[in-house]
Design goal:
This protein is of the alpha/beta class. The chain is built from 14 helices and ten strands.
Length: 344
């Protein structure tokens, strides 16, 4: 059993939140940005590029809400962080492969009291900070340690996003379903700054709550989607077809059992059974995972944060994960043959 995380001592005090910057105006970034901007309580800017940047400059935030409402709101958008200036909150909503570069280019947004909220998939780079045996971090998601150096642990809040959206065209996003956001201190406990941000997100229409153990919440979501994402990417199948195949269903259950054993070794216990989760997933019907959508769009796959990081942690705690290892090997080779994952 590894040592549990201790409460971090260097947490800045809560402060009035006035300026929020969205780094990565894709589906989730735009969902957050548009709803926050529509409150009128904060100034919401965007660090973006290419066609998305041009669309934001021309039209502002544009969101087709899950309730049928259209939300439009102004935004200051730029591909240069220095144009946007210091922020109270920076929400990082990019795909994992882009984070190393963006952590460098976003530095002008960050002051000593800026809150950093990574709204991303999988295991974040900071996940094992404070755990014995992980002093070097997680090589699969932060090989050089540059992300941890540029995005200070003391300024981070953990985040789990239970919401989905789709980019209809650059700068125009449709909110599909879900409004739940779980945020919390990476070291555990409840802080005034997390509560203040949760209140702002609630005012923007999200079901936001503060968790006293956000690491466990992150691990629980990962337990549910570690298998479906890469399997759907490799097979091209929606989740209903994966679950309907007895061999694949059993493979998923075995891999999820491994995730649960790794979680138990780092204080992130899973109390549900794989079949409990399969029953919930089946309710989604013919659902395309985000990784399958990335394959169809020719975008890099987030295998490192969703699968490889679990292999890193398992090795660190001495838990054997043959099913996860096989899943990573198969999906990595598939992605490399498609040019969607880097070669060594």
């Amino acid at each position: 059993m590894h040592e549990s995380l201790t409460q971090h001592a260097d947490i800045p005090p809560a402060h009035h939140l006035q300026k929020v910057c969205i780094v990565g105006a894709g589906a989730i970034g735009s969902l957050l940005g548009a709803r926050l901007a529509a409150t009128g309580r904060v100034s919401v800017s965007a660090l973006a590029r290419g066609e998305t940047l041009q669309a934001l400059r021309q039209h502002g935030w544009r969101l087709q809400g899950d309730d049928g409402e259209f939300i439009g709101a102004p935004v200051q958008a730029s591909d240069r962080a220095q144009d946007l200036g210091l922020q109270d909150v920076v929400i990082v909503a990019v795909k994992g492969p882009a984070l190393t570069g963006l952590s460098a280019s976003s530095q002008p947004l960050l002051g000593p009291d800026t809150l950093i909220l990574p709204a991303m998939n999988g295991v974040p780079w900071w996940f094992c900070q404070g755990l014995q045996g992980f002093e070097a971090g997680l090589p699969s998601v932060d090989r050089s340690g540059a992300i941890a150096q540029r995005l200070p642990f003391s300024q981070l809040l953990g985040c789990v996003v239970h919401a989905s959206g789709a980019v209809l065209e650059p700068g125009l996003v449709r909110h599909i379903k879900g409004r739940q956001l779980i945020i919390g201190e990476p070291s555990g406990g409840v802080s005034s700054r997390a509560s203040a941000l949760a209140q702002l997100l609630q005012f923007a229409g999200f079901d936001a709550r503060v968790s006293d153990n956000v690491r466990r919440d992150i691990w629980f979501k990962l337990w549910g989607n570690l298998t479906m994402n890469p399997l759907s990417a490799v097979t091209g199948a929606t989740v209903d077809r994966i679950l309907a195949d007895p061999l694949l269903r059993q493979f998923c259950s075995s891999a999820m059992d491994e995730v649960a054993r790794v979680g138990a070794a780092i204080g992130c216990e899973i109390e549900q059974s794989p079949e409990d989760r399969h029953a919930l997933t089946a309710q989604l019907g013919a659902f395309k995972t985000s990784m399958l959508q990335d394959v169809e769009s020719g975008k890099p796959l987030e295998l490192d944060a969703i699968v490889a990081a679990v292999c890193d942690i398992a090795q660190g705690v001495g838990v054997q994960t043959p099913h996860i290892d096989a899943l990573f090997g198969i999906s990595r080779l598939f992605a490399r043959t498609k040019g969607l994952y880097p070669h060594e």
